[in-house]
Every structure is written in C-alpha cells, then in structure tokens.
# Entry
Amino acid sequence: MDSVGILIICRKTKRFLLLHRVEKPVVWSILTGTMDVKGETPLQCIKREIKEEIRVEPTFIEGIKKVGTLKSNRGTFHVFVGFVDEEFTPDLKLDENDKFRWSDENDLPDNIHNKWGETYNLVKNYINLKEVVSKKIKLLLKN
# Structure
C-alpha cells in the first residue's frame, strides 16, 4: 500500500521534526502515514496525517511540496517537505508516536528509520533552502 511522509523544517533553526513511533518498527522518523482512504491523493493524505498525528491544521505548515518518491516492495512512498517559522510542540497522537524532537543532520537519534538516508537525499536541499537559492543566484549572476 502506498504511503506518504513529510519533513517539517523550521526556517529559523534549520532543524526538522522527527517523531518516535510506538509500533514496529519502533524508530524515529519523519511524519508518515498510509494512503488508506479510497481516492485520496498523496497531498490530501499528508494533510490528513498532519492533522491526525500532530494535531495542527495543515495550513500551519507552509509550502507543502512533494519532492519525490521512493519505491519498495510495500508500494510507493511519496515524500513531502513543509516549513514553519518557529519550532513548535506537537500534540502527538500517542497511539502512533510517543515522543518528538527537533534535529539537524548532525544531531540524529541512533535508532532512526533505516530508509532515512534515501529520504534525506530527496529533502536535503530544502533544509538549507536560503543557502541553496543564494548559490544559484550567484551562479546566474556570473553567467
């Protein structure tokens, strides 16, 4: 069955939200969910999961954008990014996630999901978006 995930990035700190799962696999991961509502698009699903799992309105997360997909024997994983101006304390749905943390690339928990590397390759340019845009502008100005 297809699934979705979103890396929520704080613009101010450049850190991102990780959630600790309570069901197998018991690991830290981005906010994820299964596309189990008939006819639901990946974007509709991630917005529903935001509301269900961290209990914030999806409009609180700005610039939600699909950045790619990963394939596995379980289906397609649709990867999104979204942004907040300030780190916040999510109201966790405790039957799915029991802890949260704001992390950066140098402060990852030991038991992070085994697909983190693949997900990170899709989202890494968005973590330091300002720097990426600045580099691209400088390159354009040189030409």
About this structure: The helical segments are 42-53, 116-127, 129-142.
